[in-house]
Amino acid sequence: MATEAFLLLASFLAVLLILAQPLGRLLSGIILDRAIAGTAAIEAVLWRICGVQMKEMNGRQYLLALLLFNLAGMIFLFTLLMLQGVLPLNPQHFPGLSWHLAFNTAVSFVTNTNWQSYAGESTMSYLSQMVGLAVQNFFSAASGIAVVFALIRAFSRQQTDQLGNAWRDVIRITLFILFPLSLLMALFLVSQGVIQNFTPYLTATTLEGLRQTLPMGPVASQEAIKIIGTNGGGFFNANSAHPFENPTALTNFVQMVMIFLIPAALCFAFGETVLDRRQGNTLLWTMSLMFVVAALLVMLAETRGNSHLPLLGADSAMNWEGKESRFGILNSSLFAVITTAASCGAVNAMHDSFTALGGMIPLWLMQLGEVVFGGVGSGLYGMLINVLLAVFIAGLMIGRTPEYLGKKIGVPEMKMAAIYILITPALVLLGTALAMMSDAGRAAIFNPGPHGFSEVLYALSSAANNNGSAFAGLSANTPFWNLLLAVAMLLGRFLPFIPVMMIASSLAAKKTQPASTGTLPTHGPLFIGLLTGTLILVGALTFVPSLALGPVTEHVQLLTH
C-alpha cells in the first residue's frame, strides 16, 4: 500500500509540473499584457464589439469593474433559475427554484463556490446547467485569476497606479485560457464515456427486472470547466463519484491533475513575470510539501480505518465506506485532499464517511484559506498575502524593515493583510456559532454529538472559503441555511478582493529597492520553512479549538469505546 501511495503521488506531481510550466509562460504573457500569438486580430474585433478601452485601470477602478461584472452575473443567474419552468431546454419540465434556493445557487456559482443545496438531475434544466451554471463557472474563475494578475503586476511594476484593464484580462483569460482547456478536456471526457447530449431522461430495465431512470444531459462540457476552473459543482448530485461524470480511473487521474493545473501554472507565471523564477518555485515547493503531507495523512487514516470493523465481521479495518470501488481508498483520499486544497469542491467519495482524522485534514485545508495550490487565482493571492506576513515577521526578528521583491512592506500593507486573514475565520466561526445557537440551524443536523458539529463547521468552512464540498447529514436546503451560507459565500469571496487590491495599489506605487546584504532571501529551504510555519501557525491558532470540539473529540470517542 505504501508503494502504491508513493507511485500515485509521484506520478501525479510529475504530470502536473510538466503541464504547468508551458501554461505558466502563457499566463505570464497575458499578465505582461502581450497578446497571444495569432490572436491580435481577434482581440481588435473583440475590443470594438465589447467597447473595451485600452486604457489601464488603477486599483479602485479594477476592483469596481470586477464587482459590477459579478453582480450582473448573479442577477442574471438568479432570474434564470426563478424562471426555469417557463424557459426552453427543459425536457423534464422542472419548475423554477424557490427564491432562497435560487439566491443561494446564484451566489454559489458567481463566487466560484458551487455549493449545491439541490440534486442537479432532479432540479436543473439543461438551459440552467449550460447558460446559467456553466457560464458562471467560466466567469467566476476568470475573476479570481484577474485579481491575482493585478497583484502580480504590482510586484513587477514601480511608481505607478496602473494595474491593467479588468475587462481585457477577463476576456483574455476566458477565451484564450479557460475555453481551450475546457474544450480539450470535454473532448477527452466524451472519449472516455462521459455523456454529452440533450436527450430526455431514459428509462431502463435492470437485470433484476426493476425500472430505473437514467438522467441525461450536456455533462462533459460542464464537467470540464467545473474541474479546470476549480468550481466543483456537479451536473449530478453524486458529483465526480457518478459514472456519467467520472467513469474510469483514467478520467479520475486527469481530473485530479486538471484541478491543480492553473494554480500550479500561476506559480510559474509569477516567477516569470517578476523576473525571478526562484520566487515562483519557492511558492510551488511550499504548496507541494504541505500537499504531500496532507495526502499521506488522509491515506494513512483511511487505510488504517476503524479498528471496530473487524469485530463486526468486516474483512479488514480499512475504511471503504462512502468510496467508489473503481477508484479505491488511495485515489479517493488523494482526490479529497486535492479538491479541498484547491477550492474546487468536486468529490469522488463521501467526505462525511471518512474517519474522524481523515475528514479533519480536508476540513483544515479549507480553513487554511485554501492556499495549498488553492483556487484559480485565489490560491496564489492568498499565498502571497501570507508571504508578506512571513516577511514581516522575519523583519521583526532581525530588526530590519521587511521587504519582498524589492518592495518595502509597511504598516498599511500589514493592516490589509491582517484584515484579509481575519475575514474568512470570522465568517466561519461566527456562522458556526449562529447555526449552533439557533433552532433553525440545529434542526438541520441529523447526526448528534461531535460529528454533527463537524458537519456544521465543515459547511461554514466550505462556504466562507468558496470550496463547495460538504459533509452529508446536514439538511441545508432551508431558508435559514440557504441564506446563511449565501452570505458566507458572498462575503468570503468579495470582501478579500478589497484588501488584495489595496495592497496591490500600494505596492505598485512604491519604488523597487535593490537587494542589500541585509535583505532576507525569499527563496530556498529556510524561507520555505518560515512560510510553512507561518501558514500552520495562523491556521492552528484560529481553528484548533473548533476542531477539538468536532473531529478530534470524535476520534477520541472512537478510541475509548
Q: In which range does the helix fraction lie?
A: 55-70%
| Number of extended strands | 4
Largest sheet: 2 strands, antiparallel
Tell me the strand order in the biggest sheet. Answer: 1-2
Query: Which ranges are low-confidence, i.e. pLDDT below 50, for 5 or more consecutive residues?
Result: none
The total of helices stands at 18
Query: What's the overall geometry?
Result: globular
> What Rg do the Cα atoms give?
23 Å
- In angstroms, what separates the terminal alpha carbons? 28 Å
Order of helices and strands: HHHHHHEEHHHHHHEEHHHHHH
Short description:
This protein is mainly alpha-helical and 561 residues long. The protein is built from 18 helices and four strands.
Structure commentary:
This protein is mostly helical. The chain has a domain at 23-202 and 213-275. 63% of the residues lie in helices and 2% in strands. The strands form two sheets. A two-stranded antiparallel ribbon has the order 1-2. A hairpin with a 5-residue loop joins strand 1 (202-205) and strand 2 (211-214). Helix 5 packs across helix 6, helix 10 packs parallel to helix 11 (356-367) and helix 12 crosses helix 13 (411-437). The radius of gyration is 23 Å and the shape is globular. The relative contact order is 0.12. The mean pLDDT is 92.
